[in-house]
Amino acid sequence: MAEPLLSVRDLVVEFPTRRGTLRALDRVSFDIAEGEVLGMVGESGAGKSITGAAIIGLIEPPGRIAGGEIRLRGERVDNLRPEAMRRIRGRRIGMVFQDPLTSLNPLYTVAEQITETIRTHLSVSEKEARERAIALLDQVGIPAARRRIDDYPHHFSGGMRQRVVIALALAAEPELVIADEPTTALDVSVQAQIIDVMKEICASRGAAVMLITHDMGVIAETADRVAVLYAGRLAEIGPVRDVVQAAEHPYTSGLMGSIPTLTQTADRLTQIPGAMPRLNAIPTGCAFNPRCPKVFDRCRTERPEPQPRPGGRQVACHLYSAEAAAGATHG
Amino acid sequence: MAEPLIEVEGLSRYFDISKPWLNRVLEREGKSWLTAVSDVSFTINRGETFALVGESGSGKSTIAKMIVGLLEPSAGEIRFDGRPMTGTSGATMRSLRRRFQMIFQDPFASLNPRWHVGDIIAEPMRTFGMARGGETRREVGRLLDLVGLSAADAGRFPHEFSGGQRQRIAIARALSSRPEFIVCDEPTSALDVSVQAQILNLMRDLQDEFDLTYLFISHDLSVVRHMANRIGVLYLGRLAEVADGKRLFTEPRHPYSRMLLDAVPDLEMSGRRRKRVEGEIPNPIDPPSGCTFHPRCPLANDRCKREEPRPMDSGTGGAVACFAVEEGRG
């Protein structure tokens, strides 16, 4: 099997506080293959954004990576010195954040911001960089890119700004783009456009994408595989169609049932009782056990590890580890 | 027979966004106005959920605020149970006020952080003189129970609760004056999906129990489909289409409704190929001529650029404001 583009192993992120250390991410492992779109879903506080931040080395101190490793094409990037990480960030890993206004500098024109990024990472002339910037803007669907490139961010609408941010993320031709809720601040009709643009431009440049969102619909339309996080742990990961249509982890299936859709007929939505635990009160055993409809004794004492399942899926649930154990003794 | 509870007729709201007087004089500019809501009419029947959907700037929240009296309409009339609410004041308005309430989007902003939950919930009762002393406490306990919290929570502060629990508190407060009509302005947009499901289910249960009428405002079509009996689709402050809840999703008539539906991410992964969404919402300060949707509309012709379409009866209990539909071009 080919080496994955990004490999995350047993990643632990901790935030020390006065009242003890909070574990925001607890032994999370996953891979992203070259050119693949991996969706990362979960509710607020599940650790989606922290995962993204850890990969690009932007965990805010005092938070820190307390364990595990992150490899980009086999080379460790979680323990790099800041200046070495800076060369990777932007050049090899691009970023798109939720709010386009915070990722663009209001005092510089779009041209200045994109050409600066291009020239920081690639050795090209000013003129060449500008031409590339225009081509990029054109590709992300900014009408009359040659004329608009000298405008300031506030001249663009929300959707257009997010296109500029995508162009900026791709300016140095990264291998991986981390998009953290790229469409959450946008209206549905604009969201659809931005998803299309992201998919197209990343595919055409062969960039892999880690798409962080709380919106299962966006994942279903965009991702190849999806990872479901719950309370800082990986609940389930697998091909998007399998996970969306036949979730195996009780949390994933509860989550899917709670989403109203355009075709469902049920009068009531499935609801998961309670709420995700706070980081300082994660139950022992499986983090989901107090809310789980299928809970049994083992779930309350022992944390389930992700188990490989047919079809390249992994599920961290004792329902399946029991089965796996039984299979092993019989086989 | 459906009995109308809320009747909205020709409702408009303009905002003065002119520069200061001196600038206008020096720069020789006139006043400028933003039309947030333009000539909107609809009826909400007793016991039903009427939803308004639209993207940002479509005027949903402005309409909600006018209905509950937080904003004065610039033109048009709102009638509650047959009585006009515009221009009404004093005791009449006070007795009407008790009968409707509002739930806001952000439960972090809508609850006073310095008040105990019990006082927050009791405020409407006290304001309308509906309960006193021990009776209030009992009633607050009952309401907390009703929304899935416990009577003991009355002594806590809002910051001790999660987003979903706060929205439950906001619902308890809305129910405390025993209203008939509740305006819900994006009540679940700030919540996670699993919590959203809890709140939506709760709202439906309460509706059945107390025979409530809802005006439900949302940008999320799937949520609206789940909640509403009838739906109004807003575009740039105008009603594009009013339709029966399910029918809007099976037979959307207005090109904008169709575009909105096409834009919803497909969770079923049916492989549905959607049409590309064209363009963005124009600036409401300087809206396009004629039908404001014409620059994005695949069916637009010259008439659409000149004339503004009026809502026409769609023959299925709804109304559509579109020349293409009217002329059978769509």
Characterise the protein shown here.
- The complex is a heterodimer of chains A (about 325) and B (about 325).
- Chain A has an 8-stranded mixed β-sheet with strand order 6-7-8-3-9-10-12-11, sandwiched between helices. Chain A has a 4-stranded antiparallel β-sheet with strand order 2-1-4-5, with helices on one face.
- Chain A has 13 helices and 12 strands.
- The mean pLDDT of chain A is about 90.
- Chain A is of the alpha/beta class and about 325 residues long.
- Chain A starts with 5 loop residues before the first strand and ends with a helix.
- Chain B has 12 helices and 12 strands.
- Chain B is globular.
- The mean pLDDT of chain B is about 90.
- The interface of A and B includes residues 188, 195 and 254 of A.
Counting DSSP H or I runs of 4 or more residues, the number of helices of chain A is: 13
Write down the CATH topology of the largest domain in chain B.
Answer: Rossmann fold
Largest interface: A-B, 44 and 40 residues
The fraction of residues in strands of chain A falls at 15-25%
| Poorly predicted ranges of chain B | none
What's the number of helices of chain B? Answer: 12
**How many strand units of chain A?**
12
- Characterize the largest beta sheet of chain A: strand count, sense, and whether it forms a barrel: 8 strands, mixed
Q: Give the N-to-C terminal Cα separation of chain A.
A: 25 Å
- Structure classification of chain A: alpha/beta
Low-pLDDT stretches of chain A: none
**What is the H/E string of chain B?**
EHEEHEEHEHHHEHEHEEHHHEEH
Number of domains of chain B: 2
Strand order of the largest sheet of chain A: 6-7-8-3-9-10-12-11
The largest pleated sheet of chain B is described as: 8 strands, mixed
Q: What average pLDDT do the residues of chain B reach?
A: 89
- In the sheet with the most strands of chain B, the strands line up as 6-7-8-3-9-10-12-11
Fraction of residues in helix of chain A: 25-40%
Give me the CATH architecture of the largest domain in chain B, please: 3-Layer(aba) Sandwich
- Gyration radius of chain B (Cα, Å) is 21 Å
Q: Summarize model confidence as the mean pLDDT of chain A.
A: 89
